[in-house]
Amino acid sequence: MANKQADPEHQSAGAWAKKYYLASRVVMESVLRPFDLGPTQWYVMHQLMTVGPTSQRDLGRMLRIERATLTGVVAALVRKGLVEQEPDPADQRQKVLTATPAGAALWRELPDPIALILQTAFDGVPQRDLETTVRVLREATGRLTSLFPKGSES
Prior knowledge:
Elements lengths: L12 H20 L6 H12 L3 E2 H8 L3 H13 L3 E6 L2 E9 L1 H9 L3 H10 L4 H21 L7
Antiparallel strand pairs: 1-3, 2-3
């Protein structure tokens, strides 16, 4: 009898969620590499280009990125001339991030890796199946994060 663990048909939902995440990350990195951007840099640019100037502290919370990691990502974007970092007028200790004209120009050139991932992964999947998948994963995530709620504001 075949080993059920090795049989892809019998792997857990969690295993498939992880495989999906890893595969989508490879696609995202491949799409962004020619533009010298990483996925986290893209998410920062996405926020700045779709919402506008954002405090660095709020951005870290929204993207669920540790402060040290975000500091490095922002420093790289500033070094590339894509983002400006200015003191927050309301609290000089905090920083507000804004896309530069060069950042906006790059953004207009970038393909949307999320749209590509979603179109490729879910093309032809019935809407009710997608809704069920989202509901199940949302509920499972909620149950898991309630075990150790610190840092799981979602």
